[in-house]
């Protein structure tokens, strides 16, 4: 899952949400340097990534992309799933997506002082371009993919990957729904096992 998916699966705890967001920029045991709630969010993010990478539906989606995009197949599947989550948001979450996105931006704004530099830059562009809402639109997804492609000196072809999504839309959509409900149950169980009193939130 990408940013929207991670936020969707997160409990409504600002510390956990912030840790979940910065996790990709916190390596190894560096999570121990953060406040307890933030460190839990980092570990929660890692659990989501581990579960996602092993899930049969996600694996099927990634395999569908691998022959053309190779090691970018996982990144593209993450992005496609965020797009599908945004498209189907109303049936998966009780809060309207624009309101949910604004709530995430407000929370993250208060944690900029603990963000690694990469996270600060990501947050800036995420809020400026309203990624969380614009994932629902093909052009918003294309813009994000172009941003990723621009980081590499070689041609990745991922900036045209939405064409592949359109060609196999029903298959990706089916994979996504098989994944998202099970992921929601898994993360709720994980959170409650870590802390039985925690409120996983409502999906």
Descriptive labels:
203 residues; mainly alpha; 12 helices; 69% helix; globular; disordered C terminus
**Structural class by sheet pairing and helices:** mainly alpha
Distance between the termini: 15 Å
**Element pattern in H and E:** HHHHHHHHHHHH
**What is the makeup of the main sheet?**
none
Number of continuous helical runs: 12
Number of domains: 1
Low-confidence stretches: 196-203
Radius of gyration: 16 Å
Mean pLDDT, rounded to whole units? 90
Residue fraction in strands:
under 5%
Approximate helicity band: 55-70%
What sort of overall outline do the alpha carbons produce when their principal axes are compared? globular
Number of strands: 0
Structure write-up:
This protein is mainly alpha-helical and 203 residues long. The chain has one domain. It is 69% helix and 0% strand. The chain has helices spanning 3-9, 14-22, 36-54, 56-69, 73-87, 89-92, 97-109, 117-128, 131-134, 138-149, 162-167, 169-194. Helix 3 crosses helix 12 (169-194) and helix 4 crosses helix 5 (73-87). The two termini are 15 Å apart.
Give a nutshell description of this structure.
The chain is mainly α and 203 residues long. The protein has helices at 3-9, 14-22, 36-54, 56-69, 73-87, 89-92, 97-109, 117-128, 131-134, 138-149, 162-167, 169-194.
